[in-house]
Amino acid sequence: DRKSSDNEPYLREVRGRFASIIGAQADDVAITKNVTEGLNAVASGLRWSAGDNVVLCAALEHPNNTYAWLALRERGVELRTIEPLDDAIDAAAMAEAIDRRTRVVAVSSVTFTPGFRTDLAEIGRESRRAGAMFVVDGVQSTGVLELNVETALVDALATSTSKGLLGVPGLGFLYVRRSWAEQLTPASIGRYSVVRSGHQSEIESFDYRLLGDARRFEAGNYNWIGLAAAHASMGELLDIGVANIEEHAVRLARSLATGLRERGFMVSQPPRESLRSHLVTVGKLGSGSAYSTDDPKLNRFAAALEAGNVNFSVRRGLLRFGFHCYNDASDVAKVLAVADGVG
Question: Structure pTM?
Answer without folding.
Answer: 0.95
